[in-house]
Recover the amino acids of this structure.
């Protein structure tokens, strides 16, 4: 089974305090659901129109695990705290076997 990667690219952060509150619940919820944080922070460099804003990369055992983590009650609670404090692009991509 191929691993899955959760890629969150933040286009803008409107409310850093709300983002911090979301992170307090969101990261642990995703980790409890099997997510492994591989990278997070501001990119060292961007190309091709990329935005030098916060990016987060997590690894899951499968696409199904990543989707289940997103849809879990614990993560949904974190999302409620986030509200519209950020504009982000969240993708779940299947890894290459």
């Amino acid at each position: 089974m191929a691993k899955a990667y959760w890629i969150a690219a933040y286009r803008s952060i409107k409310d850093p305090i709300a983002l911090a509150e979301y992170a307090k619940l969101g990261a642990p919820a995703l980790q409890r659901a099997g997510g492994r944080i591989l990278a997070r922070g501001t990119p060292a460099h961007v190309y091709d129109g990329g935005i030098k804003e916060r990016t987060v990369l997590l690894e899951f055992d499968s696409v199904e695990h990543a989707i289940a983590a997103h849809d879990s009650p614990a993560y949904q609670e974190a999302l409620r705290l986030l509200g519209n404090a950020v504009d982000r692009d969240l993708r779940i991509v299947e890894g290459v076997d």
User: Anything to note?
Assistant: Helices lie at 16-32, 63-71, 73-82. Residues 16-32 form the longest helix (17 residues). The CA atoms of residues 8 and 90 lie 4 Å apart.
